[in-house]
Design goal:
By secondary structure, the chain is an alpha/beta fold. It contains ten helices and 15 strands. The protein binds zinc ion.
Length: 316
């Protein structure tokens, strides 16, 4: 299957809101959390910017640590689990943030902070979310990791990656019917796969991931254009979602905003698929420029997190 380029939305990196701090700080914070979870949770990471309130979590509830790899890509750590989502691709698509060659190498070969990833996920096969060689190498170098994506993505991987025979047992291609849910479980890591269409006129399958881990609930929507009506049968608003990764086009206008508020109802939002701040992206320019778009999103969703640069981290 051909890996086709992306769509009319321009997107790429972000500004930020909330608890965004540097990679080094995040690492330190993670270490502190590991060493003294209860104390760290009540005090918050020492270097968190003052404007950012650290998460107030019940004792024993693990924070969700998020590191931005570009576009819709994130490394998510929660409890004992490390999940890499929409991060294993190559050049990506112009104007969107994509990982540098060095970061790609770290991800594909399992070097820190990408070591010990349990599960890699891809919402669909577009070139700013997936590349067969990147996923194939990742699975070769992470012999216990599993990869989950759509049927179409699995097929693309099987055709384009020469070593597919050796990794195929750890590849899942799951595209449930719309409104239906598929499921993968590994220990207490529970991943529900939702069919969220990538625009009605497109044949590309896009799946969302509803992840339960360590008592926390996370939603990543991928490149969907599902409306409030499309989302309604999934009952997401009753799932007590702690953190939802939402493409920026949902956050700018009334009807789309309502879909997120009413049908997702997440405690916190991470904005994704925004073009890089300096990308001079046509669509973003038509909306008044990157800073204006970011400000508009923050006006509507004050606690939304918008990452500006790769490898920024935040905790939720
Ligand atoms: Zn796409």
């Amino acid at each position: 299957m051909k890996i086709v380029p992306h769509h009319t939305f321009s997107p790429a990196a972000g500004l930020h809101s909330g608890r965004v701090f540097s990679g080094a700080t995040a690492l330190l914070a993670a270490l502190v959390l590991m060493l003294a979870p209860a104390a760290a949770l009540s005090a918050g990471p020492a270097s968190t910017p003052e404007s950012e309130t650290p998460p107030e979590l019940a004792v024993g509830t693990p924070p969700i640590s998020v590191t931005y790899t570009g576009n819709e890509g994130f490394l998510i750590s929660v409890g004992n689990w490390k999940i890499l989502i929409d991060s294993l691709y190559h050049e990506g698509i112009a104007t969107y943030v994509s990982p540098s060659r060095a970061q790609r190498e770290e991800m594909e070969t399992g070097q820190p902070p990408f070591d010990g990833v349990n599960v890699a996920l891809a919402t669909h096969y577009h070139a700013d979310h997936f590349h067969p060689e990147a996923v194939g190498r990742f699975l070769q170098n992470n012999p216990t990791a599993t990869f989950i994506s759509t049927d179409q993505t699995r097929e693309a991987l099987s055709k384009a990656f020469p070593g597919y025979e050796d990794i195929k047992d750890r590849v899942r291609g799951l595209t449930p019917a719309e409104g239906g849910v598929a499921r993968e479980k590994v220990g207490d890591l529970d991943i529900q796969i939702l069919n969220l269409h990538h625009g009605r006129k497109r044949s590309v399958e896009n799946i969302g991931f509803l992840i339960h881990a360590g008592g926390r609930t996370i939603l990543h929507m991928g490149d969907t254009e599902a409306t409030a009506t499309d989302l309604s049968p999934l009952g997401l608003a009753n799932k007590k979602i702690d953190l939802a990764f939402v493409p920026f086009w949902y956050l700018l206008t009334d009807g789309w905003q309502r879909a997120i508020r009413k049908q997702v109802a997440a405690e916190r939002i991470v904005v994704m698929h925004l073009p890089a701040p300096d990308a001079n992206d046509k669509y973003i320019n038509s909306l008044g420029g990157w800073e204006k778009v970011a400000a508009d999103i923050k006006a509507a969703f004050p606690t939304a997190t918008i990452f500006r640069q790769q490898m920024e981290s935040a905790q939720f």
